[in-house]
Amino acid sequence: MLDFAIFAVTFLLVLVGAVLYLYPVMAAGARHGPGAGSGRPRGPARPLPSARDVAAGPGRACTLLGASRQASGIPGLAPTDEKDGNLPDIVASRSLHEFLVNLHEKYGPVVSFWFGRRLVVSIGSIDLLKQHINPNRMSNPFEAILKSFLRYQPSLNGDTGESHLRRKLYENGVTKSLQSNLALIQKLSEELLAKWLSLPEAQHVPLCQHMLGFAMKSVTQTAMGSSFEDDREVIRFRRHHDAIWSEIGKGFLDGSLDKNMTRKKLYEDALKEMESTLRKVTKERRGRSFNRHVFIDTLLQGSLSDQQILEDTMIFSLAGCTITANLCTWAVYFLATSEDVQQNLYKEVDRVLGKGPITHEKIEQLRYCRQVLCETVRTAKLTPIAAQLQELEGRVDQHTIPKETLVLYALGVMLQDSSSWLSPYKFDPERFSEESAMKNLSLLGFSGSQECPELRFAYMVATVLLSILVRKLYLHPVKGQVMETKYELVTTPKEEAWITVSKRS
Fold this sequence. Notes:
Layout: H1 2-27, H2 51-56, H3 87-93, H4 96-107, E1 110-115, E2 118-123, H5 126-131, H6 141-149, H7 160-180, H8 182-197, E3 205-206, H9 207-224, H10 231-247, H11 250-253, H12 256-259, H13 261-285, H14 295-301, H15 306-336, H16 339-353, H17 360-365, H18 367-380, E4 386-390, E5 394-396, E6 399-401, E7 405-409, H19 411-414, H20 435-443, H21 453-472, E8 473-477, E9 485-486, E10 492-493, E11 498-503
Parallel strand pairs: 2-7
Antiparallel strand pairs: 1-2, 3-11, 4-7, 5-6, 8-11, 9-10
């Protein structure tokens, strides 16, 4: 069973992560070989197969589940292609999220489709999600996918008790770094404010660019300490980060990274340099005390090996930067386009903070700010898909989900389902004054005990940033800007998002 579970999770990662990158490339004719198998060696970890290899699969694990999709009893699409299943339909839809939106609109809240010869079930209703009986929790897509693509050892390869303790150490590291670095996050936010205050009022601000830079400083300094107070170190780290992130999913899975030696060398050099930096920080901070406690200090206090510390710090750096940057980008953009919401947030910040400093106690009182961030996650569909393995047979509504089926949670569909949200396409933070709305968000993994540590970090950083910005600035949209969205692991603007700012009187 463990062998199948490892295979199924690898398959799931390819489906949720790789389809978002690979198939737009394949649609242009780039259907290539074995993908990740020939990248940089990683000891005993197995190379990740290509999407086509996984979809076809070895032996029992990929036996066609019935002669046709009707065998599942769940409404949905019959395979369009004998080998690829419904991959051509996903390509035509431009993203897996948009494919699922169309599928649920046509067939209802529980649907099925085929990834190669594998049956996949998607749930697109919060009410039906509550019925989904499965002993496994949703996987953290960032941790799982990044570990696979970087060829780090997945949790399934180790003792479950040890994995649980390692996960708790990771979560405690995020918590302690936030507790110890609030003043730092405030300082970085004020630096960005000063930069924006220095701009002419009519000048367009490149929101994505600035938020990524701000997130990069926040994550590196709270994760690894004072060595990243030097902007040159941050710029170097960002260059390596961008080189790695640009190849994750795309270059490995379509095989193009192996075929382009220049790109391959850039990727491998970036990964080598980034890992070298993490090892250097680990060595510098081991057994020593510093004024600020950072993420890596918590890992060093545990019983992890140097390799495990490197891996967990790498995952937090990559996922933390991406989630924080995009949460801040969408939050500022929505505030700029929602004058009433921006004014309500200003009133709360002025009432709670006044002219005093930001403290953890005062952050807890910024309830409307938290509503703004929750509504940002919902409206932007910040992470549109999650998934898990149906290890035991389960039921949803009148449908039976067979054992060893891969189940997608169409979060992007559920986040804008009119049966769960009044006026679902309207940006309205007031909806989260209702307990039922917060419960729905928590069930989807975006709040409460189910939220991933990287999102919890991003919520805190964004709260500090928004509080500082709205106290001093009006945020304005750029007239005529049409915001198009790109749905990947994290939802991002397709092009740069622009705003303008002006000083509050």
